Description:
It is a single chain. The protein is built from 14 helices and 15 strands. It is α/β, with parallel strands linked by helices and 448 residues long. It is elongated and about 80 Å long. It starts with 11 loop residues before the first helix and ends with a strand. The mean pLDDT is 94.
Amino acid sequence: MNMKAESCTLLSPALALLDRIQNRSARVGVVGLGYVGLPFAVEKAKVGFRVLGFDRNPARVGQVNRAANYIGDVRDADLKDVVLRAGLLEATESFERLAEMDVVVICVPTPLTRNLTPDLQYIEAVTRELARRLRPGQLVCLESTTYPGTTEEVMKPLLEASGLKEGIDFHLAFSPERVDPGNKRYTTRNTNKVVGAASPASREVALAFYRETIVDVVPVSSSQAAEMVKVFENTFRAVNIALVNELAMLCDRMGLDVWEVLDAAGTKPFGLMSFYPGPGVGGHCIPLDPHYLEWKAREFNFNTRFIALAGEINRRMPEFVLEKAMRLLSDHGRGLKTARVLVLGVAYKKDVDDARESPGAEVLQLLAARGATVAYHDPLVPRFQEHGLDLRSVPLTADGLDGADLVLILTDHTAVDYRFVVKHARLVLDTRFATRGVAAGRAEVVLL
Ligand SMILES: NC(=O)c1ccc[n+]([C@@H]2O[C@H](COP(=O)([O-])OP(=O)(O)OC[C@H]3O[C@@H](n4cnc5c(N)ncnc54)[C@H](O)[C@@H]3O)[C@@H](O)[C@H]2O)c1
């Protein structure tokens, strides 16, 4: 590996910062208090750092300062402890206080534009705020997912416009967040963290910072390599999900049960990693991040064909779910036009309250466009406002299930009692195999 020197001579601003990191007197700023930023801020405060969260959303700032939790992966007790008891975490809307920070970690959104190109407006806005207040000895770490080159091509020039030099006066690194919302086993603390930086000095300081709270820190040779690691990881998931989604469509045509095939394939003790089909991909990572890499590759006159193909297959899934629902209803003498469809689950995946980019939005729109009367139940998403929809979750009742011509399971939340669903529904299309082990009941259950 072409690693810039593992250790290097650090200048006095870096040495002073290392000292403050190691004795935990360093002030840590976290910009963007969402799914990534809040758990990170709490984790740092838990080990004794004084953390200041920055967010332009006043509601979130107020919630943090009242210790009113709004992120599922953060334990209420932990937030109360660091905010109210220890006074180690507070939040502000004012960027003025960035100058007080020794370390600034940036966790703002990285969406796509309407034309599926990277939209770095949030990263750029925060970097400009920082540049105005940058002082010697600070470490700036970007955690938002982005294309290889963002840290050094976009952030570094904006920060150096302050007159300070990266690697000498201030330090700059990229460390992708790998948090998997809803995952109880792997959290911010025990998920390995990759760190790459703009210079050897920056890498050394950033490694020291992350090693204070993360069990395993993995250095790479540059910020570009670290950026590539993250987009590769999400592309890997997008491509493998597309592969099983395609298999699901083929199995449907061939009259085979894709779940049986995948379960049996999953018994192979080596060389196979299990992925499962579903109604499409959602959330703010898998549908978006591969496009960041696709866009950057074009600069090198390179077509990322796997990314394009995976996107095409995954985007086709809501249509496939619609087709299968129509076929199923027609087999039971019903047309979609007069059917009542109850959708179970609109969050983009199991056990999260996040409905951004959820394929459920497209499925509901497609059903409604064909004349179906639609309603949904999701214990974690009381109101669903995506892609022009504005619906409220209905209670899950025996009458509601029995009154639906089709119950369509799109998300397999643990909190839903699928035995109850199968007992009271008449016809179920299960796109997640949520009814595994409970399919015997009144309803006829058909899998994706
Ligand atoms: N959610 C995930 O599972 C996950 C996992 C790994 C990586 N990521 C990446 O992490 C980044 C953040 O994602 P997220 O899910 O935490 O987003 P989020 O929308 O939950 O949170 C982002 C926060 O940033 C704030 N914000 C936006 N612009 C700001 C600005 N100019 N100044 C201050 N605050 C600002 C927003 O108000 C919001 O509170 C993205 O790049 C995402 O791709 C997300």
